[in-house]
Amino acid sequence: MFKAVINADIFKDSIEAVSTLVDEAKFRLNKDGISIKAVDPANVAMISFDLHPDAFESYECTDGEIGLSLMTLMDILSMAERSDKIELKLDPEAHNLLLKMGGLAYTLSLLDLAAMRKEPKVPNLELPAKVTLKGRDLYRAIKAAEKVSDHLAFGVDGSAFFMEAEGDTNRVKLQLTKDELIGLDTSGPARSLFSLDYLSDMGKAINKANEVTLHLGKDYPIKINFGVAGGKGKVEYLLAPRIESD
To answer: At what angle do helices 135-146 and 196-206 cross, to 10 degrees?
Structure first.
């Protein structure tokens, strides 16, 4: 059983954060809320997503799991005004999820869980650098890097955090000192290079976050954490690095 009511803006922003990486996902439903763990088709990026029951105006649920097309769900949510209330109700016998909003009623067919990819295991990474900054600052660096390259490097050097991109002829760098950051904690230098294709997709959700925390290492994956739904939900992206040649 699953029955809930949630503000359209909260639900749209939450689902968008997941749909930037994957087209479909398994939703774990229980009394603690909704959670998703998924990896993109190329196995380069992973997302972990949690939405607490407090993010909903009403929430009734028993343990279960459903598969949904995020592309279809986002298409439906695009019809909602941000001030709308979205009613969600699972119909397990018909294998459907019912959505009501602003006088519209949709019936969304569930995906076959057996045909979907298995939920990935989230690796336990001990990364030496932790950087917390404003979401808009990270988004700004991503957009600036798109002008000159298809990759973006993140790093920590002493008491400063930097983001830099270098193309065939042009280069851009943004550096923020410890005083300009929300937080910086490091036990050593860190630098890794990442694909801007993935960072640009993630940037759509990152730009809406008040603050974002990055966990970095030397040629290691990056963990990107931020809150959604006014802190009642959380997103973690894990992105594999591009190994730089000497």
So the answer is: 150
